[in-house]
Amino acid sequence: MAREPASLELTFSAGAHAVNRKQRRRQASIQPRQVTAPASRPAANAAAAEAALAAAIQHLQAGEVRQAAALLETVLTEQPGNHVALHLLGVIALQAGEPGIAAGFIAKAVARKPDFAEAHGNLGIALMNQGKHDDAVASFRLAVSLQPDYAEAHYNLGHALKNRGKLDEAVVHFRKAIALKPGYAEAHNNLGIALNDQGMHEAAIASFRKVVALWPDHAEAHDNLGTALEGQGRHDEAVASHQKAIALRPDFAAAHYNLGNALKEQGRLDEAAAACRKAIALAPDSAEAHYNLGNALESQGKLEDAVACYRKAVSLKPDFAEAHYNLGHALRDLGRLEEAVASYRKAIEIRPAYFEAYYNHALVYRFGRGDPDLPILLVLGWRNGRE
After folding, report:
1. Domain 1-163 is classified in which CATH homologous superfamily?
2. What is the reported pTM?
């Protein structure tokens, strides 16, 4: 299922307000929450620090990040261990695309205040953005253990678990986030993605329909709905959903190549190829776009062109097992059996349980070379496909 990466939920608290920033949308929403003021040294310094924190929050709410950062640094000059200021500087670094710097600040905040649930949640985001997924999962788990009603942390934990392939547990946390915030559109969307990846297409469709009811101009949800509908063979509806996503976001490359895939299933091959070419024009480095164009061209019998597309896809994404497998098919149909075998083997190397690749690898040997190991290959393929 091709879709845009899900956004993580970044939250922070200070003073008397909590600010929730969605990294993808960039608009801030303000929700009341009481936070204990940082511990003071002399009374004058404490009052100055409290005033600086309040002013920093106001600047953050106004999008005046530099002014906020300057005030927070002033606080830390007077109170180097102020966990609120450390956390907020980490949040600013996250918003600036500096997860390493963010993790440094936030780690200091949680060292000062180990039960700071929001800081653990945002530390998880910083770690995840550095590719430290297991550490991120640990931070999100700590956040929800400290604050079980922290909907954003449940959502982020679900997202991290989904990326680790732990779909059952991801679904649990997306559902928990939704139970806490029924109108949480991104949680419904990611729940739908996880369900669809589990093959639960009808449940996924229900989740995506909930998203578009809550947020009608959510292009990714319309596109994901189209992909789930394809999983049920409802190609007409899928085409309409992908077209809706494109109408909302004409530069949405994934929606164009997903539309191409749906059109191919309808037998509208010229339109399918055109949609995939549009995706490539928008995102030349998209392996999925080149792959889907290859599929459309292969269906048209344009095998040499399909081979070129599959080769481009695997050059962009070397671990793209399906592209190696389809490259093997196209090469086989061109009679280039040695190359086909190499492609099937590459697909198997990437995905050892890829039964179809074992089977076709065996067939090429059996009918192209009279290889006596066909039964062994089929048994291995069947065993790996079941494990």
Report:
1. Tetratricopeptide repeat domain (1.25.40.10)
2. 0.81
